[in-house]
From TrEMBL:
Source lineage: Bacteria, Bacillati, Actinomycetota, Actinomycetes, Kitasatosporales
Region (Disordered): 63-82
Protein's name in the database: Uncharacterized protein
Compositionally biased tracts (Basic and acidic residues): 73-82
Keywords noted in UniProt: Membrane, Transmembrane, Transmembrane helix
NCBIfam families the record matches: HGxxPAAW
Length: 82
């Protein structure tokens, strides 16, 4: 996977870090029964996904590889069928 740069982008790292912080907030809030903080943590998790997608769309995500040509539908079906 390292050759495909899967997840090794600023967009991916930023989205994951924001989501992780939200997950930690929600987890701590579950232990100290605080419903408002749990909902806030879950909202931060969702915001992390939105920020990651927005950064990816802004060009900070995975760029198309120059080493491989895109394959057509016929070639793809031949690869998966065989």
């Amino acid at each position: 996977m390292a050759a495909a740069a899967h997840g090794h982008t600023p967009a991916a790292w930023t989205g994951v870090v924001i989501s992780f912080v939200g997950f930690c907030v929600a987890g701590v809030a579950m232990i100290m029964p605080n419903v408002v903080l749990v909902i806030a943590g879950l909202a931060v998790v969702l915001i992390g996904g939105v920020v990651g997608k927005a950064m990816s769309m802004a060009g900070m995500g995975k760029q198309p590889s120059k080493n491989f040509a895109p394959i057509g539908a016929e070639e793809r079906s031949a690869v998966t069928a065989g």
